[in-house]
Structure formats: C-alpha cells, structure tokens
Amino acid sequence: MLYKSPKRRPVSDAKMECENSRYMFQCSLEGCRALLHKDGNWIELSNKTWKYQNCVILGYTLRPFELIVGAHFGDRDYKPLAKVKRGIHPEEMEAFVGVVDQIHLWKDRNGIQWIEPRLCCKIRYLDATDDDQLRIVNFEHFLIEFDPDDCQWV
Fold first, then answer.
1. Which pTM value belongs to this model?
2. 72 and 101 fall within a common domain
3. Is 108 exposed, middle or buried (0-12, 13-18, 19+ CB in 10 A)?
4. What is the CATH number of the domain that holds 83?
5. Residue 123, Cβ neighbours under 10 Å: how many?
6. Which one-letter DSSP state was computed for residue 91?
7. Distances from the Cα of 15 to the Cα of 1, 48, 52, 96, 141, angstroms
8. Stretch 60-79: mean pLDDT, rounded?
9. Which domain holds residue 29?
10. Is the dihedral of CA 78, 83, 85, 86 positive or negative?
11. Does 37 lie in the same domain as 17?
C-alpha cells in the first residue's frame, strides 16, 4: 500500500508498507529512510541522501547482468567500488555488450569478465562502508567521451 506521509514530512515523501511485513520504507527524491516495525512502534533507522560518483567500468557479469565499477584513489590504480545491477535499461545493456568484446581482457572463475578501463558511467549510491564499498547502488548513465583517469573517488 502506498500513501502520503504525515504532515511533518515534505509532500514529496511517500511511505510503502507490505502486508505481513515488519518493514516499511519511506522514500523521496532526496533519498530513502528505512523504518522498522518493532512492538507496534516505528523506529527511524537512517536518513540518507543519494550521492553521485563518476566511475570507470572494470568488468561485468552476464547472468545476472552486473557492472563492476571503480575509481582512482589518489595515486593508486583503479579500485573496485561496487557491483551495479539496478537502473540499467535493456538498450544500454545491449549497447554495452555490443562494444565490450573489443576491450575484453580475461574471465575469472567467478564468471566476471574483466575489461580494459576505458568506459565510464555515473552511478548513485546511498552509503559507503569503511573500506569504500558502495551500498544500494543505481546506474544513472554512461559517460560518453569521458576520460577514465578523471574518475576519482570523491
């Protein structure tokens, strides 16, 4: 069931609750808040906003389709940041698979196809761990004619 939030929240907020679920999620254009039902009370867990990052595509998997994205950390080489599976449209996936054979490097035993770091994209995420792994990641769009060396961790 989707309904407007109470008056104390901005009008752009919406709450979503599933029947027989202990969880409820409240999202807006700025980000998501997760609320947990416990003993009849709702407890606010976090108030996160989306952050954006330009990334270089380091690899991918086909089943399920995921992009492995990374960025420069100072003078270090590229470091993987996340696996991105949400937000990629079928046309974008088809275009990516159509050109990626030209820059393919190798396939590891986990099914990851590693590629030369030449393609870039913009992603959005809600959180990062202490070791710089991104959580709740969405694909925004490819960055055409973008230099991979400009994909610095911010």
1. 0.71
2. yes
3. exposed
4. 2.40.50.140
5. 24
6. H
7. 8, 15, 24, 35, 27
8. 91
9. 2-44
10. negative
11. yes
